[in-house]
Write the structure tokens for this entry.
Amino acid sequence: MKKLRGSRGVTLTETLCTVLIVLLISAMLAVGVRFAVRTYRESMELSETELLCSTLTAAISDKLRYSGEVGQNMFIQGVGTTDSGGGGSFAISDDGEVVIQTTDSKEFRLLGSASYPQGLRVRTTGTGETDFISYSAKTGIFTVSFAIADAQGNILKETCFDVKRINAGKK
């Protein structure tokens, strides 16, 4: 018995405690990494939402600012191939992308599909609205409002802005 007590080594209890400590540290590390990845994904989604909203705002503003005649169907210069010089109106496609529908029934994407990352889609704001752009002939100002939603349909950002038409009064 004296020989066993004097031997240097690790007891079963010490080994189990060490394994338990390593397992606890591994579990805490796994939870921390999952949290960091989820936070990173949410941050990237919000960043992409802000970028898409900003890009759409700039693109729509540029088209509306220089629009020609505005009637039942908005006239946007340089779009389409109709005899009247081309024109069309903005719409949101079934895919949730902003498109320009021309007077000759063609659709042009305002931005490429790569501009809508991570399943982000454009929606109209409010309930039952079909148009996201309205025009006041009295002031010559377009009012644009839309929302950016994720793949599950949760609205991440809403925006509303006005665009003064430069070509107002010109035909």
